[in-house]
Amino acid sequence: MADIAFLLLIFFLVTTTIETDAGLDRMLPPIEPPDEDVVIKQKNIFTVNINKNGQLLVEEELMDLKKLRQAAVDFLDNGGAPQGTPEYCSYCKGKRNPDSSDNPQKAIISLKNDRETKYGTYITVQNELVGAYNDLRNREAQRLYGRDFTEMEAEYLNPETPSKIRDDLKDKVQKIQDLFPQKLSEAETSTNN
Amino acid sequence: MAKFNKKKGSDVPAVSTASLPDIIFILLFFFMTVTTMKDNTLMVENTLPNASEVKKLEKKDRVIYIYVGKPSREYQKVFGTEPKIQLNDKFASVSEVGDYILEERAKKPQELQNVLTTALKVDKDANMGLISDIKQELRKVNALKVNYTTYEGDAFRNLQ
Description:
The complex is a heterodimer of chains A (193) and B (160). With 193 residues, chain A is an alpha/beta fold. In chain A, 41% of the residues lie in helices and 14% in strands.
């Protein structure tokens, strides 16, 4: 009896691959262009270019990949709109530089890559940009609810969480997402240079 | 069997093995339930990149997989070493991606058809040009939710 069970056990032990896939979630833009043209101020756009050698051009300057996260955080959290205007960002802790983004709702990160860029480099850049958003969202979630946003979101997305807790979390997650909406635009790849 | 003589003659009973089959069965059932047989044989090299800000892909029935990478060694003679797309069990060109997604979507139950995620399992040495083409195809069939499947780890390791 035990022998047969052992045999089966060993078979399943060997064939088991407990794989839980994980990765970066992204939404692609719909193919139909929006009805009206939206005018976006240049200062609200944070351009990131990756060339085929994996070098970064951020806001027309060469930048090290390790500094990208901080640069993105600075840009998103800038809150350059002056106090008193409806665009004023009360929770931003940035430098409030009038030449950078008005508020996180307006701030857009534009990512462009070459056709010959390595996928690994692209993922690293994506990871850093998503990380910048997560850092800021965690900060706000800590301030408002005393816990990390990423943790709250994981609990909300977990199907095993009781629905009562999920309903409660849904509002909180939504609120934080509204404070720092992820606006990451990806233009079509360039072929030149 | 060696015999150990204990002078004090304490009578510690031998450990009963009567429950051993039960324990083994419990383990067996555990592994039987968590086992998922691989349904796709990989025909491409698939070393995923690392990322730290990952989210788990929860429900497997809502995921459509697309593999991209260099053909594995046994296929290199026929297909070369340029990264290729693998859908199900065969190589495909970019133009077939859209049809594949529609086909897979039609197979799923009605209520899941709007919440499907496309998991892109791409080798880290693939070029972005191919990925951009795939993304363009996905946009055409309105499969906008994508997940770049990665390993969990330090993202800067991708650069080496």
